[in-house]
Amino acid sequence: MNWNDLRYFLVLAEENSLSGAARRLRKEHTTVARRIEALEGDLGTKLFDRLPRGWQLTSAGRNLVPVAERVEEEALTFERQAKGDEAAHGVVRISVPPVAGRVLFAPRLARLLKAHQGLEFEIVGAANVVNLARREADIAVRMITPREPGLITRKLVELGVGLYGAVGYQERVPEMYWEFCGYEDTTYGASKREWVRTVLDRELPCRFRADDTETVRQFIAAGHGVGVLPRYFGDQDEELELIHADIDGRSRESVWMVVHPDMRRSPGVRLVMDALVKAADNIAEEYQV
Q1: 191 and 240, same structural domain?
Q2: What's the CATH code of the domain at 133?
Q3: 233 shares its domain with 272
Q4: Range of 208's domain?
Q5: Is the predicted pLDDT of residue 86 greater than 60, yes or no?
Q6: What is the full DSSP assignment across 122-191?
Q7: Does 87 have pLDDT greater than 50?
Q8: Would 288 be classed as within a structural domain?
Q9: pLDDT digits (tens, 9 = 90+) for 13-57
Q10: Is 265 helix (H, G, I), strand (E, B) or coil?
């Protein structure tokens, strides 16, 4: 039996769909299906029912979930501790939101690669929260407050946001006809919409929502409406103009660095942690208000 198939089994059990598991594992859905079929063949039992609404665990599959979780945790603990004792070389997986990674942290990390020829970086441009205990990443940068117990966390910086429109939008469109380009219905999205309501003293109609900053930016730039973007992103865009800045910091965003305790001893991870701290220290003051 291939013990790596246990990870496929556990992720599919959590996601209940091939597409969801494939996104988590960053594999093709056909690969996920093939690995599950191989595991079922090795065990001689059916683990999932293939249903139109998704892949559902069989009774045998449900019974094996806690066993597989224990095996996976032991294997991951072994791997983390072994990686913690190695020299500053090899692959370091870094999870960072795509826009923040590209604009704020990539230049500093690129310089680190030049200085340490034995290091390799694998950037996971994830908007979702990766599982550090499962080695989905070695170190994570998050725009939300970490809640998982047992992780090492550090607030890197607080970043300001602004309300933006396309250049000339304010002149072309009377304010009474403005629309809002928003984020999906999450706590984050609701907080941005509430801030705009407070700033403008009214609720804007919202016919467009997205789960990523770049897509919201594109709709704002296309003149569909106004929207909230980080200052480090919106201020650099020649297609946009700042309408309102978050002067009082009511909608400010905290940026956190998160790492599993077992990985802190890894020289490569420590170098990345130091680089992220220095990158945050160098973020221009105007982006922090």
Answers
A1: yes
A2: 3.40.190.10
A3: no
A4: 161-245
A5: no
A6: EEE--SS---TTTTS-SEEEESS----TT-EEEEEEEE-EEEEEETTHHHHS-GGG--EEEE-SSHHHHH
A7: no
A8: no
A9: 988 888 888 888 878 888 999 999 989 988 889 999 998 888 999
A10: coil
Can you state the angle between helices 5-15 and 59-84, rounded to 10 degrees? 120
Say how far apart CA 233 and CA 229 lie, in whole Å.
7
With 80 as the cut, is the pLDDT of residue 245 above it?
A: yes
CA dist list (Å): 229 to 5, 186, 193, 196, 237: 41, 16, 12, 11, 11
Q: How many separate domains does the chain show?
A: 3
Q: Contact, 144 vs 189, CB < 8 A? A: no
**pLDDT one-digit tens code per residue, 170-214:** 999 999 999 999 998 877 888 899 999 999 999 999 999 998 899
pLDDT tens per residue, range 138-168: 899 988 888 888 899 999 988 889 999 999 9
Residue 107 lies in a domain: yes
The three-point CA angle 8-79-150 to 5° equals 90
Measured distance between the N- and C-terminal CA atoms of the chain, rounded to whole angstroms: 55
Strand positions, DSSP E, 35-137: 48-51, 54-57, 90-95, 119-124
Query: Quick one: 109 and 148 in the same domain?
Result: yes
CATH of the domain at 74: 1.10.10.10
Co-location of 240 and 165 in the same domain: yes
Task: Return the SS3 of 283.
Answer: coil
Are residues 63 and 106 located together in one domain of the fold?
no
Find the angle CA(34)-CA(40)-CA(41) to the nearest 5 degrees.
Answer: 90
Phi, psi (rounded to 5 degrees) for 156: -85, -45
* Last residue within a domain, chosen from 55, 83, 111: 83
Last residue of a domain, one of 39, 63, 83: 83
